[in-house]
Structure formats: structure tokens, C-alpha cells
């Protein structure tokens, strides 16, 4: 973090701390202070603020989402799952909560549950490229290669310069035995800076020869 950004964050934190002191029951002020603490790397203080926001309003959807993200990053999967399920209960059409829950299920190798959560996420927000990327990975693991290609294409449509989207497409096409197109997307992923698995690259080039 640059010194300039650190100074800017310190100033914002001071202003928000003052607002929270003046109005300690303001969910918005407490929540925003928590977010800035997160950005500043002050994780424990961020947790305290977001927990406080939920004490003030137990339906504070964004506080659940952000607090869940912190706990997931810390490896507290159970707490992250609980918070995202609460977020979905309060707002069933929350694409981000469904996306986060999908990632939690995927980490636990619960692929069917991950797939269901990701599908709900893109149903509510079809522009979430990370979800299409994760969907492609899960579908490949499940052997649903046609759908993996479709999901990879969705990601490429959203961001044609996404290296991961092109790599995912290469993998999906490899399993569909479309080697020529797979090599094309692999090379595009490399051009965009992706570190392609050398073993995968060798297999592709071997089959192309």
C-alpha cells in the first residue's frame, strides 16, 4: 500500500470514526467504517464494525456479505456459510450471496450444491464473470463439457481479455477433443499473461502434432 493511499485511508477512517461516535446506531456509518478498515488491512476492527452493524440491524444484507467474505478469507468456512445463508434468507435474489455460497460449496468439493448456487447467481446477475468462470470449472470437474464450453464463452463474452476464461475454454475444448480450438484459446490465455499448466500445454501440443 502506498504512503499516499495509507494517508487517505487514515483520514477517511478518522472522519468515519467521528461520525460513528456522534451516531453509534447508524448502520450505514458503522458498515462503511468496517469496509474502510478492511481496505486498510485492519481486519479485527473491520469484523468488530460489521458485527456491530448486524447488532443494530440484523437484516443488514451488505454487512452479512462483507463479514462472510472476511471469515471465508480467514478459513472460517462455517461462519462464512452461515452469513451468506442469512443474506439469502433476507434477500433471496442476492446474486453475490449465491455466488459466495457456491464458492464455499466448491471449496468443500460439494459440486452439485456449488453448481446450484452458481446457477442462481447468474440467474439474478448474468454479468458476474467470476461466477461463469467458477461454473466452467465445476462443470469440467463434473464432466459436463458442453456446458463448460458454454459457461467459458459467457465469460469471454463479458471480458474477451480474461486470461482465465480462455484457459477454461481451452480445458473444456480439450475434453471435447476439439484440440485445434483448445490450442487457440490456450495460446490466447498465455498472451494475456496466464501461466498455463505446462503438462496441459504439452498434452495439447502432442495431440495437435
UniProtKB/TrEMBL annotation:
SUPFAM superfamilies: TPR-like (SSF48452). Gene3D superfamilies: Tetratricopeptide repeat domain. TPR repeats lie at residues 27-60, 61-94, 95-128, 129-162. It holds the Pfam family TPR_11. It comes from the Bacteria. Signal peptide: none annotated. PROSITE patterns: TPR (PS50005), TPR_REGION (PS50293). Keywords: TPR repeat. This is Uncharacterized protein. It comes from Desulfotalea psychrophila (strain LSv54 / DSM 12343).
Amino acid at each position: 500500500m502506498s504512503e499516499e493511499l495509507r494517508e487517505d485511508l487514515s483520514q477517511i477512517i478518522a472522519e468515519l470514526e467521528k461520525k460513528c461516535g456522534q451516531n453509534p446506531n447508524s448502520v450505514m456509518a458503522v458498515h462503511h467504517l468496517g469496509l474502510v478498515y478492511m481496505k486498510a488491512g485492519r481486519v479485527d476492527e473491520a469484523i468488530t464494525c460489521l458485527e456491530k452493524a448486524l447488532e443494530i440491524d440484523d437484516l443488514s444484507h451488505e454487512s452479512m456479505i462483507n463479514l462472510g467474505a472476511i471469515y471465508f478469507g480467514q478459513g472460517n468456512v462455517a461462519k462464512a456459510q452461515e452469513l451468506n445463508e442469512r443474506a439469502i434468507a433476507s434477500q433471496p435474489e442476492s446474486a453475490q450471496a449465491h455466488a459466495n455460497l457456491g464458492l464455499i460449496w466448491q471449496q468443500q468439493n460439494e459440486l452439485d450444491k456449488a453448481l446450484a448456487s452458481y446457477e442462481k447467481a447468474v440467474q439474478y446477475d448474468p454479468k458476474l464473470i467470476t461466477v461463469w468462470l467458477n461454473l466452467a470449472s465445476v462443470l469440467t470437474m463434473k464432466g459436463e463439457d458442453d456446458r463448460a464450453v458454454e459457461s467459458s464463452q459467457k465469460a469471454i463474452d463479458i471480458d474477451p481479455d480474461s486470461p482465465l476464461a480462455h484457459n477454461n475454454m481451452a480445458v473444456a475444448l480439450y475434453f471435447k477433443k476439439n484440440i485445434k480450438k483448445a490450442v487457440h484459446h490456450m495460446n490466447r490465455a498465455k498472451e494475456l499473461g496466464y501461466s498455463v499448466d505446462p503438462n496441459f500445454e504439452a498434452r495439447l501440443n502432442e495431440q495437435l502434432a
